[in-house]
Amino acid sequence: MNVRRLIPTAALAGAVALGATALTACSGAGATGGEDGRLGVTASFYPLQFLAEQIGKEHVKVDGLTKPGVEPHDLEITPRQTGQLGEADVVLYLKNLQPAVDKAVAQSGVKNIVDAATLTSMEAHGTGAGHGEEGHAHQEGDEHAGEHTGGHEGHDHGGSGTDPHVWLDPVKYAEIAKGVGAALEKADPGHAADYRKNTDELVGKLAALDTEFKDGLKNTASRTFITTHSAFGHLAERYGLDQEGIAGVDPESEPSPARMKDLQAVAKKDNVTTVFFETLASDKTAKTLATDTGLKTDVLDPIEGITDTSQGTDYFEVMRSNLKNLQKALGAK
User: Fold this and answer.
1) Beta 60-64 vs 39-43: how paired, if at all?
2) How far apart are CA 272 and CA 221, in angstroms?
3) How many CB atoms lie within 10 A of CB 231?
4) Long-range contacts: 18-24, Cβ < 8 Å, 24+?
5) How far apart are the first and last CA of the chain?
6) Residues facing residue 62 across a β-bridge
7) What is the dihedral of CA 177, 178, 180, 186, to 10 degrees?
8) Most confidently modeled of 104-108, 203-207, 305-309?
């Protein structure tokens, strides 16, 4: 697996003031996605594809660049796919998450390009992310707490930089949804009212999901969880949890003896019961640590793609499975 590239802070002067920043200029006429008149939308990976489908519904034809079961960070794009990308009416991507996509988007010549990273705030999270000791910060309410670094230097998610997994925080994902809705309205003004209505419905569902997580994780025996993939910093920060990543960037890499010793101490001190692994990667690392510490293993899915092994058929179902697994591991009361 390639080292995961993260989004440099300088590139992300956030802009929920959409319109001009989210999109490059486009013609006033509604763009079409082919003979059926639907808007052609290409999304770089599942979380953005899901938003386009939920907001665009019958007015859009959505194509995903990352097929089910493919690790998004490792995606390679063929010249043919780059050519197809250029035929899209709207392209949705998250800059610096998938280098091959960045290159293809730059070459595509598409007028309506939405970088999801500009639609919400992005923070830095190390392997230890959330609230608590060792400099971990926690944000209250909907305010963004700026940039944070994890308490375990040398084990952060790909080095210094920001955590791209914003869709795992329903509040941030709702901000991105609003930006996607605005993009579709601009590209296809004839159906703007429908896009607005669908966006409002989706944002409402995400607000309800946020409430479920808040209530479900309010009172737990432990606030710390261990995971093979340090993808859950935004989620941990939103709900006052501490994420402890085993080896940072690669969920299949072997943890160092020093990190194993550190995590064993963390597990004992913070009443940790479970080591989480993800569906798109091997559970070998999680089992190694679990065996050495007497802990259980379970799935915490970063929802980078939906497959037959996912604990749900869409974003909401898998997020609720994640909530149940966290509640069980943390001893929710």
Assistant:
1) parallel
2) 9
3) 25
4) 18/119, 18/178, 18/179, 18/182, 18/183, 19/182, 19/186, 21/118, 22/114, 22/115, 22/118, 22/119, 22/179, 22/182, 22/183, 23/112, 23/113, 23/114, 23/183, 23/186, 23/187, 24/111, 24/112, 24/113
5) 38
6) 41
7) 160
8) 203-207
Q: Which residues contact 248 (CB under 8 A, 6 or more apart)?
A: 127, 155, 156, 157, 158, 230
Q: In the beta sheet, which residues pair with residue 113?
A: 91
d(CA 133, CA 148): 13
Cα–Cα distance, 278 to 298 (Å, whole number): 8
Contact 48, 5 (CB under 8 A): no
Bridge pairing between strands 242-245 and 128-130: antiparallel
What span, in angstroms and rounded, lies between the C-alpha atoms of 266 and 223?
A: 11
Strands 90-93 and 39-43 come out as parallel
Question: Tens digits of per-residue pLDDT, 188-236?
Answer: 999 999 999 999 999 999 999 999 999 999 999 999 999 987 899 999 9
Highest averaged pLDDT of the listed ranges 29-33, 65-69, 108-112, 187-191 = 187-191
Question: Which pLDDT band, with edges at 50, 70 and 90, does 122 fall under?
Answer: confident
Residue 128: pLDDT band with limits 50, 70, 90: low
What stretches of the chain show up as alpha helix (H) in DSSP? 46-56, 79-85, 99-108, 170-187, 192-216, 233-238, 257-269, 284-293, 315-330
117-121, 152-156, 234-238: range with lowest mean pLDDT: 152-156
Whether 66 and 46 have beta carbons less than 8 Å apart is answered as yes
Tokens encoding 26:
């486009």
SS3 71: coil
Q: What pLDDT, on a 0 to 100 scale, did the predictor assign at position 71?
A: 85
Contact 108, 85 (CB under 8 A): yes
pLDDT band for 33, please (50, 70, 90 cuts).
Answer: low
Query: Three-state DSSP class for 244?
Result: strand
Q: What is the DSSP letter of 162?
A: B
Amino acid present at 9: T
